[in-house]
Write a structure and sequence with these properties.
Layout: E1 2-3, E2 9-17, H1 28-37, E3 42-45, E4 55-57, E5 60-63, E6 65-70, E7 80-85, H2 100-109, E8 113-116, H3 126-130, E9 137-142, H4 156-163, E10 171-174, E11 189-193, H5 199-207, E12 211-214, E13 219-224, E14 227-242, E15 250-261, E16 269-275, E17 281-283, E18 287-288
Parallel strand pairs: 2-3, 3-5, 8-9, 9-10
Antiparallel strand pairs: 1-2, 2-11, 4-5, 6-7, 7-8, 11-12, 12-17, 13-14, 14-15, 14-16, 16-17, 16-18
């Protein structure tokens, strides 16, 4: 557990991790040992087509998870990867039979959340994303996508494009760990406002957006009337993002810890991200304006 700059309790959580139960290189016990040593409070084991129940591994809280890869490899034909989190039982998806919407629906029926994984890696278009119903969250950053995969780890552009059309999701940063050898593990995670690692409390916090996504820095985006404010750990850059193509909304300096932004009339959402002196990023959730 961690205490943020406002004195609130936070849990460090990794929500997309593979083991040798599918295409990962290490056992669940080995993965849990690595993440526990890195100060994580909870992880989700999300092997492809292999449901892992909530529990503990080596004293580390484990959130139930599974990943469904749908559509093969040719992105022009429509590739979706859907991560199921917090399901109370195996969603029982039929490989080769159930389409992406059925997968989402079955995850919900099992009591879980359906996450659209690495939409940039999958080359999901805004049109592909908009046709999905009841997606609970998406990944704004996916670490393994930066190392020998598609080299498209950051999905900010797609997220902004669909948010401009009125569709915004809770934004997760994940590792999508496969190798667990230092290049794709313990890099990106969420910091959840919660006094416990109980899966139901973590789930509730994600639904209600009481978390931020990060590679290290702390970020908090708030709104007070017609102004937005970022409070953060010391960073070198603070950025406000929206659907508006151009307007001044960047603060730069040494060890800056706050910035404000007044939306322009064309804005219909605002989010923020910060970058520290080591190049590590943290992302807020979106706050809609309309």
């Amino acid at each position: 557990m961690y205490i943020d700059i406002f004195g609130k309790k936070r849990q460090k959580v990794g929500l997309h991790i593979h083991t040798n139960l599918s295409d990962g290189k290490k056992t669940p016990a080995e993965v849990a040992e690595v993440y526990k040593a890195a100060g994580y409070d909870a992880i989700a084991v999300t092997d492809h087509w292999h449901y892992y129940r909530s529990g503990e591994i080596g004293g580390l809280r484990v959130i139930s998870g599974i990943e469904y890869d749908i559509g093969g490899k040719a992105t022009e034909n429509g590739v979706y990867h859907i991560v199921g989190l917090f399901a109370k039982n195996d969603p029982d998806v039929k490989k080769g039979e159930d389409g992406v919407q059925t997968v989402i629906d079955k995850i919900h029926k099992a009591g879980g959340l359906a996450v659209l994984a690495h939409p940039a890696w999958s080359l999901n278009t805004p049109e592909m994303i908009m046709k999905l119903r009841d997606v609970d969250a998406t990944e704004i950053y996916n670490s393994v996508s930066a190392v020998g995969q598609s080299f498209r780890p950051d999905s900010s552009l797609l997220i902004d494009m669909v948010a401009a059309q009125g569709r915004d999701y809770p934004l997760l940063a994940t590792d999508d760990t496969h190798y667990c050898n230092g290049i794709d593990n313990c890099i990106a995670y969420i910091m959840v406002e919660s006094d416990s690692t109980d899966p139901e409390k973590i789930k509730e916090a994600i639904i209600n957006r009481r978390f931020y996504a990060t590679q290290g820095p702390e970020i908090h985006l708030s709104r007070d009337g017609d102004k937005f404010r970022v409070d953060c750990s010391p960073v070198s850059s603070i950025y406000f993002a929206s659907n508006t193509a151009w307007c001044p909304r960047t603060a730069k300096g040494e060890k800056i810890t706050s910035a404000e932004y007044t939306p322009v009339p064309s804005d219909n959402f605002v989010r923020a991200f910060v970058v520290d002196e080591n190049g590590r990023t943290a992302w807020s959730n979106i706050i809609p304006l309309r």
